[in-house]
Amino acid sequence: MSANPVQNAPPAETMEQRVQRLLATWRDETAVISSSTALVAHPAYRELIALGRPALPYLFRDLEQTHDGHLSSALAAITGAQPVQPGDGGRIRLVAERWLNWARENGFRW
Amino acid sequence: MVDPLVVLFPGLLATGYRETSPRTRDYNCIAWAAGDTLNWWWPTGDPADEPRFWPAGAPREETVSAFLAAFASLGYTPCDDAGVEPGFEKVALFVDARNAPTHAARQLADGRWTSKLGRSEDIEHELHALEGDVYGRVAVVLRRPQPSAAEAPSVSIV
């Protein structure tokens, strides 16, 4: 008897799983890279941006857990906002805090 | 088990290395070489985002001259060799095949070097052990007189 292709197909990746997978790939493949240009040009990072607003709750959850302010470019690209003050861009944890405050003020839940 | 750092930097296998800090995303190799553990230094990034820290007056471009200008703001000038010179601190700048800066390391008193590896650990290593596919080659060595506490040019952090 042939297997049912639908039943045997892997379950579709949820948005949360996709965000987590892309974040893991991006972090793994850029772990020793210092270039901010290279960090935001990585294909997994660009794919995160392409996910758009549905990805935001999962990105904010990750941000809260990791304080990884290197996500700021993705968040700026998706939201069009820029809560980071001029001159604060080098302070990675502060960048993360600014984005989390912005998210709370704008009604995001994660 | 294969050491992932040795996979990325095979030169570490022969010369050895020592981890000297846990991983952190707060600062990078350029900041570490400059003596700053509060900021991530890089001249360029996403134009739509707030830029990372870069010394005022140094060009915001991914070129050797821009990095020389950044370290010049701390008193560093190019020098001819990477050996220990009493009374001087040294920084080495790595570039890739396009001559774009990729990494910086700072010399320790015993002649070994200390590097922050992107968002990963700080390590102590031999200078050329990090040369290869990831960071390219050492292009420039810089030095400055070892500053006393009162004389050290401070990092200008806004």
Strand arrangement across the biggest beta sheet of chain B: 1-6-5-4-3-7-2
Termini gap of chain B: 44 Å
Number of helices of chain A: 7
Biggest sheet overview of chain A: none
**Total DSSP helices of chain B:** 4
**Helix and strand sequence of chain B:** HHEHHEEEEEE
**Oligomerization state of this entry?**
heterodimer
Q: What's the helical proportion of residues of chain B?
A: 10-25%
| Largest interface (C-beta under 8 Å) | A-B, 32 and 35 residues
Strand content of chain A is under 5%
**How would you state the average pLDDT of chain B, rounded?**
93
Provide tags for this entry:
heterodimer; A: 110 residues; mainly alpha; 7 helices; 61% helix; globular; B: 158 residues; alpha+beta; 7-stranded antiparallel beta sheet; 4 helices; 24% strand
Describe the structure.
The complex is a heterodimer of chains A (110) and B (158). Chain A is mostly helical and 110 residues long. Chain A has one domain (13-105). Chain A is 61% helix and 0% strand. Chain A contains 7 helices and no strands. Chain B is α+β, with helices and mostly antiparallel strands and 158 residues long. The longest helix of chain B has 9 residues, at 64-72. Chain B is globular. The A-B interface holds A 27, 30-37, 39-40, 66-70, 72-73, 76-77, 82, 84-93, 95 and B 5, 8, 25-31, 38-42, 44-46, 48-54, 62, 102-103, 116-120, 134, 157-158.
